Amino acid sequence: MSRGGDLSRGSSVSSQKAIALGRGAGVDRPWPMPPTWDLDRTVEGVIVQGEIDLAVADAFEEQASEVVMGSAVGNFLIDLSGITFMDSAGVRALIKVLELRDGQRMIVQPSRRVFCTFVG
Question: What beta strand segments (E) does the chain contain?
Fold first, then answer.
């Protein structure tokens, strides 16, 4: 008998490894992507961090909208200083969130990348 098993029966080391990995190891299905953004509530508003792109814009809009609609403060602050990337879908989502309230809205400390997105 060899180290990799009994090769005389038609088995091989590579087929044994494939069987050992099987369905439960995630080999035959994609791994879930880690979150690329985060939204933290504060007394004054929200702090947003990470990347807001087409893949997460709807989730960002939904979560930020919930916070905005549940807020009782007159000036709602959205801190984008932690944003590393925002595409047009992220800008669209942000504008929809800003349109939810009748009171004054502020974008506080936008990151350089977000600022460049807004001014071109």
Answer: 37-41, 45-52, 76-86, 105-108
